[in-house]
Amino acid sequence: MSFGSGRSSARIRRGLSFGQVFEGTVVKVPRPGVIGIFVDIGLSVTGFVDVLLLPDESEDWPTEGTVADVEIWWADSRKQIRLKPSDCRYLRNDFTDFVERRRPSWPSDIGRPVRDPESVTLDGFRPVFRSGGPSAISP
Questions:
Q1: Strands 81-85 and 47-50
Q2: Are the beta carbons of 15 and 67 closer than 8 angstroms?
Q3: Contact (CB, 8 A) for 121 and 18
Q4: Are 10 and 116 spatial neighbours (Cβ–Cβ below 8 Å)?
Q5: What pLDDT, on the 0 to 100 scale, is given for residue 46?
Q6: Are 59 and 29 in contact (CB under 8 A)?
Q7: FRET label pair with 119: which of 10, 66, 74, 133, CA 20 to 30 Å apart?
């Protein structure tokens, strides 16, 4: 599943906001512990929870068929909606610290509309990587 045409992508994004909650069904866990999970949120768009937001131990991840609430975390040029689990059982243990380090604007982003990827600038993008590696964007 992916965004359709540029028009439908813009239309879908206009109706979404960061932190918006959806009930989703895990539809694919392709490489547990390595990349993340795909979640059907009932839209014509791919929902994806990145490995960075999931617990360290893949045994603690939701399995295919699991129904759980997820929130819109990010949307970019990959033309998919990045999600984060609402249920703390499926969220990385140090999420609060992670947000403070890697996306300190998250609390103020909640409720803001998701923008079209073309309107996102490099200055406005904060990479979301585990610590230990260089940043993809220079300060």
A1: parallel
A2: no
A3: no
A4: yes
A5: 82
A6: no
A7: 133
